[in-house]
């Protein structure tokens, strides 16, 4: 059974930090590119950051470059998103996605940036 389980979300003040984790099981994690997406109320889901299967290729949305860092630990079947200097506009439900031959999505986790 394929599972992607996000954790680490919550409420944080502007300027603060959070680290999201996405634990994978049920498929060959190290063979899959992984991404983080987010969806704010009333908006379309958008790509935040992506990382190749081996971790050597990274890409980021312009809106998070220099503030967010994606990484992965293939030994732990986990992908991370370190989010620093958070802004209210980063408020959204964050999803992890696995992509290779198939696409798998996590259930999403809420991140709220507010004072």
Structural features:
four-stranded antiparallel sheet, 11 strands, mainly beta, seven-stranded mixed sheet, 115 residues, globular
Secondary-structure element pattern, one letter each:
EEEEEEEEEEE
Largest sheet report: 7 strands, mixed
Task: Tell me the radius of gyration.
Answer: 13 Å
> Tally of extended strands?
11
Mean pLDDT: 97
Could you describe the 3D structure shown?
With about 120 residues, the chain is mostly beta strands. The protein is built from no helices and eleven strands. It has strands spanning about 5, 10, 20-25, 35-40, 45-50, 60, 70-75, 80-85, 90-100, 105, 110-115. The strands form two sheets. Strands 2, 4, 5, 6, 9, 10 and 11 form a seven-stranded mixed β-sheet that branches. The mean pLDDT is about 95.
Please write out the topology.
Blueprint: E1 3-7, E2 10-12, E3 18-25, E4 33-39, E5 46-51, E6 58-60, E7 68-73, E8 78-83, E9 92-99, E10 103-105, E11 109-113
Parallel strand pairs: 2-11
Antiparallel strand pairs: 1-3, 3-8, 4-5, 4-9, 5-6, 7-8, 9-10, 9-11
